[in-house]
Design brief:
Blueprint (H helix, E strand, L loop, with lengths): L12 E5 L15 H6 L1 H7 L3 E4 L3 E2 L11 E5 L6 H13 L3 E6 L9 H8 L12 E2 L22 E5 L5 E6 L14 H15 L5 E4 L29 H14 L3 E4 L6 H6 L8 E2 L2 H5 L4 H18 L4 E3 L8 H4 L20 H17 L3 E5 L19 H5 L43 H5 L5 H18 L11 H4 L3 E2 L6 E5 L4 E6 L12 E5 L13 E6 L1
Parallel strand pairs: 1-2, 1-13, 2-5, 5-9, 9-10, 10-11, 12-13
Antiparallel strand pairs: 3-4, 6-8, 7-8, 14-15, 15-16, 16-18, 17-18
Helix pairs in contact: 5-6, 11-14
Length: 547
């Protein structure tokens, strides 16, 4: 049955759970649903309103679970479907809604559909669910087109016929173990609509859509032509019809659709947020923005303006399971983020990065709209250096081993103790934890009100109170005016961002090299670090004021 109708998602704080690295309940070194259930009180106390779970389905984990074999079952290493249902119910009792991840662009190479396609001959109906094509060249030895994988290398892999001879090629925009589905086939659309209903009926409050702009391909699968007006597989106009259909299903359950959309064109991006399509989408412009005042302000302004045009809430995120940890990135000479720029051994100043991460936390939590918090960000975890023989991410291998991959931001969380596994569970975690992470444990930070965990808890509690006062919060029926409205920029010294919200809160962030005076105010409500003896805001520090 539909849940009580609300607009909770318009101003929610949503915590991303990467299950394999959150908490281990059975002691095998891999996080699981039992571990998450045991830590639900921690998440409730943190002050978030919802939990987004990265894929927990049956998978060979060729790409961290984003290669799904069966959407209607939980991977045995993580738990069971019954445990997932219990987790959703237990979280809801604590005021935490659940968002599940769906990966519609592709499936696992071990999916029953793809195995049947491989068993079929060229032209077989089973192959029509994917993109199988003969190769180019005299003997078909060349890929059907020049498309490149998001992970590096060609986006095509050649099959073998039953007699061992080379066969057709199949398309995979990611790893070879992730064959792309053919969204022109009605069975593909029907299956995913059924998957949405399956999880909504089990209590999921929302669906996060992975690689949401890549599903539909030009039917001719042409070579990529940068001069052509339409990209052959990114942001195709036909895709909007898919999401209109999904929205009608979500509305039946009062569910929310959240898109992962990496689109540089703001106007094209906001088309997906029209009232009959997705509810919200991730703001990757803000995530990848460097720690520079002009760039941050421009990103904030463009984001708010674009979302206002379609009546959708903005979203804010500093980090996720694909990008470099915030404290590491903000301590580097280049504080922005680009996948192509990731390299081993990039130096960082963690003390500087941590100061900036603390300030960025107050900045994002003061902005109107929803905010996403990746697990471990509240602990200030840095990017971990993974030994070469323990790297699992396919981005590393397919880049010619120059990209360190994404494993460094996916290391199991430190909970207690002074040495690995820091209370995570098991003697040897699936990715190794650094030996110097004892200061980052949740246990130690809970005893220190000045820790980053303490800052996040206080800020999230205050943010939730403002949202509740505006009529939104965790279960209100309308979007809160204070949290959902735009901001007013205040005059400030060069390098300082200062804005006021309609509820009277003023947020000030000093990105300059020198201490800065605070604007007129009645009280300092919270700051990411202490003011100096003269009452000035130090560099790389933020404060919330009562104006």
């Amino acid at each position: 049955m539909p849940q009580n109708r609300s607009a909770w998602w318009r101003a929610a704080a949503i915590y991303q759970v990467y299950v394999r690295s959150f908490a281990d309940g059975d002691g095998d070194g891999t996080g699981d649903l039992a571990g998450v259930r045991s830590r639900l009180p921690y998440l409730a106390e943190l002050g978030v309103q919802a939990l987004w779970f990265t894929p927990w389905y049956v998978s060979p984990f060729a790409d961290g679970g984003y290669d799904v074999t069966d959407y209607r079952a939980i991977d045995p290493d993580l738990g069971t479907l019954q445990e997932a249902e219990k987790l959703i119910a237990e979280a809801r009792e604590l005021g935490l809604r659940t968002i599940v991840d769906v990966v519609p662009n592709h499936v696992s190479a071990e999916h029953a559909w793809f195995r049947a396609a491989l068993d079929g001959e060229p032209g077989a109906p089973e192959r029509e669910l994917f993109h199988f094509r003969p190769g180019r060249g005299r003997d078909g030895e060349l890929p059907p087109n020049d498309w490149r994988s998001e992970f590096g290398g060609p986006a095509w892999t050649r099959t073998k016929a039953a007699d061992g001879s080379p066969g057709e090629w199949y398309l995979h925009l990611f790893a070879p173990g992730q064959p792309d589905l053919n969204w022109a086939h009605p069975a593909v659309r029907q299956e995913h609509e059924d998957i949405l209903r399956f999880w909504f009926e089990r209590g999921a409050a929302g669906i996060r859509i992975d690689s949401a702009a890549l599903l539909v391909k030009d039917p001719g699968l042409p070579d990529f032509d940068p001069a052509h007006d339409r990209h052959p597989y990114v942001d195709r106009d036909e895709l909007h019809d898919v999401y209109r259909s999904w929205r009608s299903i979500a509305d039946e359950y009062d569910g929310v659709l959240i898109g992962e959309l990496w689109l540089p064109d703001v106007e094209r991006f906001t088309r997906y947020l029209r009232p009959d399509e997705l509810h919200t989408a991730f703001n990757f412009d803000f995530l990848s923005c460097p720690w520079e005042p002009d760039r941050l302000r421009a990103s904030i302004d463009s984001t708010l303006a674009a979302h206002a045009r379609v009546g959708a809430p903005a979203t804010w995120v500093l980090c996720n399971h694909d990008v470099t940890r915030t404290v590491t990135r903000y301590g580097r000479a280049d504080t922005g983020f680009e996948f192509a720029a990731k390299r081993f051994g990039t130096p960082t100043d963690l003390a500087l990065g941590t100061r900036r991460a603390r300030a960025a936390a107050l900045l994002t939590l003061a902005l109107p709209g929803a905010v996403y918090l990746y697990q471990g960000e509240e602990l200030g975890l840095p990017e971990a250096d993974i030994p070469l023989d323990r790297i699992t991410d396919p981005m590393h291998a397919r880049s010619g081993r120059v990209d360190p991959g994404r494993d460094g931001c996916r290391v199991p969380l430190p909970w207690t103790g002074t040495e690995p596994p820091y209370g995570f569970g098991g003697a040897d975690t699936w990715l190794p934890q650094p030996a110097d992470w004892a200061p980052y444990t949740a246990e130690r930070q809970e005893r220190d009100p000045g820790s980053l965990l303490g800052l996040y808890r206080t800020a999230l509690r205050m943010r939730r109170a403002w949202s509740a006062a505006g009529g939104d919060a965790a279960g209100g029926d309308a979007a809160g005016a204070a949290v959902g409205a735009a901001v007013s920029w205040l005059d400030a010294p060069a390098g300082v961002l200062a804005f006021a919200r309609p509820d009277g809160l003023v947020c000030v962030v000093n990105l300059a090299a020198d201490p800065a005076p605070l604007p007129d105010h009645r009280a300092v409500l919270l700051s990411s670090g202490p003011l100096n003896d003269a009452g000035l805001l130090p560099p790389d520090t933020a404060a919330w004021l009562r104006g």
